[in-house]
């Protein structure tokens, strides 16, 4: 294999360099900078949501762009911190001292390794076990949890946000008398401005202007303001806090605090840490204790990351993308990121949408986004300390409220009410117990329904007559497979039909049945013997050749078959004549 083909196979991003023009570079630069202006405030906010210092959000924002540009296959996808993964990470970062970053970085590495194993074993199809109602229930519950976790920052209450919905709400209501007016006012105004600016891009003001150049200028300005609304709100609120808090002894806002400037150190994730125990004593933890603490998150978090990333890739890149390649790119983004103090990352739908509408042409746009983040870490970090926490909470709340998908409930109620139950279980249990348990119970409910349908197939049983008046009982399974849990159900259904309609030949219509297993075949053999003792013939109609072979090999019985419905009357007449 030629060297260039080998490099393209290992690093698919290299293929984008072929025919890469100056126009492509300009388009990628504009899109990369636009996404960068979006990820800067989001990264700071999501790190706070994860219970980490703000700089860790920026550490998580630049590695994924570089790695995905080399390994990814969808130009619109942007890899970085997200609200959902930040929330799941926050469950392990509240033990004090420096254990929070240690747990988050180790979880990032383990997530990457699990995703890499899924890519090697081609297990990306596992995400298909998570149905749409369960996904909706999960994302809606996490949106509610994320939103409520930011109420403390919005109201100016001290203390961590946490990831427990019930305890967070109890804490907020118990401290309403400590609400700070400055933070509350700034937070509500910020949310209002963010929602208005989000809606601004839908207003067609430019159509009222006759000049084409002015139309383009106004449309471009509105688009820039609406797209960069997060950065704009954070910038304005930071300027307000700087001018207010730098000149007075008392500050009306709770600020983010000092943000460490400079690049993260390149180092292995730590496999031991120190936490605060009872009575503020320092307690050392080894890697076994850390892994025990991470528990199910080591597997559920990567699956959720894969689910989101594959969904984004399909939404923007179509069905031609390789899930295995996307899994590999995501896994390497997490593995490489863990060496740069990153928390777990995945594709961000909101930033990918910004990337798309910004006109990105290749994944190289991720390089420009990463460069902007690195520039901010090097030059702007000292100024991040003036960002009010209320503004960051407003950024998160205004983003996650659109994750709550009420619109799915009505069509589900009309079309398939059964599917509402797994979604409702996921939503309620995620709020009451935890997002991991809620997701597992929702998937478990879905799997239980699938098993029930396989064990209790719908049977259409009717007594019919041929043209010559010969009666027979037609049993038509409406499922394509008959497996071992279902065979007893089929036997019981046929027995009930004989009790109800009287003794008559039984015709099992296999036109829609394409698969039997060994246990089901042996069950059919037992049914054939039981009916033979009652002098009731059993016919298989329109049975596939493979099914006939399986039944004969497993039971040593030659089941009488009817090739097609047209032969039914003739064979029944012959059977009755022989019986007489």
TrEMBL record:
Annotated TM spans: 29-49, 56-78, 103-121, 126-147, 179-197, 217-242, 294-315, 327-345, 365-384, 391-413, 425-452
Chief site of localization: membrane
Key words of the record: Membrane, Transmembrane, Transmembrane helix
Gene name tied to this protein: LOC115622708
Origin: domain of life: Eukaryota
Compartments it resides in: Membrane
Keyword Ribosomal protein (UniProt): no
Organism: Drosophila lebanonensis (Fruit fly)
Biological process annotations from GO: transmembrane transport
A single GO cellular-component term on record: membrane
Protein name: Sodium-independent sulfate anion transporter isoform X2
Record carries keyword rRNA-binding: no
Topology within the bilayer: Multi-pass membrane protein
Ranges for domain STAS: 480-552
